[in-house]
Amino acid sequence: MNAVLYAVTVLIWGSTWLAIKGQLGDVHPTASIAYRFALAAVILLAWARLRGLPLRYPLRVHGQFVLMGALMFSTNFVCFYFAEQHLTTGLVSIVFAMSLVVNMVFARVFFRRSITAKMLVGGGIGLLGIVTVFWPEFQNFGLSSGSGQGIVLSVLGTLVFCLGNVVSGKTQAAGIPVVQGTGYAMAYGALLMAPFAAFFGHGAPFQPTLKYTGSLLYLAVFGSVVGFGAYLTLLGRIGGERAAYAMVLFPIVSLLLSTVFEHFSWTARDLAGVVLILVGNLVMVANPALLRRLTGRPAPAPEPAAPAPADR
Known about the structure:
Layout: H1 2-21, H2 29-50, H3 59-83, H4 89-97, H5 99-111, H6 117-133, H7 135-139, H8 146-173, H9 178-200, H10 210-238, H11 240-243, H12 250-261, H13 268-285, H14 288-295
Helix pairs in contact: 1-4, 1-10, 1-12, 2-3, 2-9, 2-10, 3-8, 3-9, 4-8, 4-12, 5-8, 6-13, 9-10
């Protein structure tokens, strides 16, 4: 089951970055985010109601849902939607891939989990890969430049998302199921976006085109309901720092789609940087015990000790 959840997360989240491009246009990004998570929340909560799952929780728990919605289903997506106005989808997903490192740091800060030397080495290699990919932007870095703003927004969105992982992990540890918790959090995320959409919105409130409507439905149903459902279930089963291993592979899916649909041109520097990012993440992943837990395989049984020689 863990392997299936992992594969679903990689394939769906690897493609959602391109779908977000279909949301950029006359409709303000905050309105698009509100539409996306409002629709996803309706689907999840309606599914819970049809199955007879409990939907009543105390105000204290709803406070956790609000915080989770603010971090995972509103603020971070504002950062990513605006970042994609300046960077290709593949590059934004590369920055987001470093959430693997951030999740490990947050696991240390919030859950007192240890950080090994292998994690530090792997994180350092991954950061070197990001610097390699974005070296021209770093040389001419400035908040006034479009690429500089895109990098800052991508990093900020990643940090906020990882904080949301912490809240989600604690919520599931308290016994709140993924379906109800995610549905309420998405509903609160959409509500938080609504006033910003009303205040900052300009142009058409909705774009009834195949591109916009199709991308919205894909993001709501697959990117939000299925994708987040798989990821958050995985997070509850194996922990945030291990669930973030999905970030190792989906940037490759994003870059391949960006190459086909956005005409992303690969250079030797881009290829070297991506290789460094993958190597850095794989260094942290390369732990037989963790991989067995991720795939659900049992640990190998110890070899039986050799019988003692009989007394003559």
